[in-house]
Amino acid sequence: xxxxxxxxxxxxxxxxxxxxxxxxxxxxxxxxxxxxxxxxxxxxxxxxxxxxxxxxxxxxxxxxxxxxxxxxxxxxxxxxxxxxxxxxxxxxxxxxxxxxxxxxxxxxxxxxxxxxxxxxxxxxxxxxxxxxxxxxxxxxxxxxxxxxxxxxxxxxxxxxxxxxxxx
Length: 167
Fold this sequence. Notes:
Blueprint: H1 9-20, H2 26-33, H3 37-49, E1 69-77, H4 82-93, E2 98-103, E3 110-116, H5 119-131, E4 136-143, H6 156-160
Antiparallel strand pairs: 1-3, 1-4, 2-3
Domain HTH asnC-type: 7-68
InterPro entries: AsnC-type_HTH_dom, Dimeric_a/b-barrel, Tscrpt_reg_AsnC-like, Tscrpt_reg_AsnC/Lrp_C, Tscrpt_reg_HTH_AsnC-type_CS, WH-like_DNA-bd_sf, WH_DNA-bd_sf
Protein name: Lrp/AsnC family transcriptional regulator
């Protein structure tokens, strides 16, 4: 686990605003967080250089692109040696439909978030994963019906134990 970054109230405000408005200008960001432009830009660059900000992206409305299915798939491996975990992760990374992969503890080893054009495509993907001999002993799938809380911002203040009095 990495050492936690040392962030002050302005860094937290920058992160919170960029989660909501990643395309904002430095002028807008500096005004929103209460800093002048130059220090705000320096702080944002520092957050990027230290890896606290990993990147920027667009939140795409899949429903506007056409039919699709989102599936959470619980995967159990037959072996838990480090080599077997790496083999599964490398194999899963080859498929663009697997948009998130978590190695977890509990009743199974991995939780995958899969987005596919439909159930048939998802089923074919799972067959390919099994054919790839990645060590999958069993899997169980859950098809998403609705996403009432998808795309929420990370709870930065809660994680850091920061006080809301900084707002």
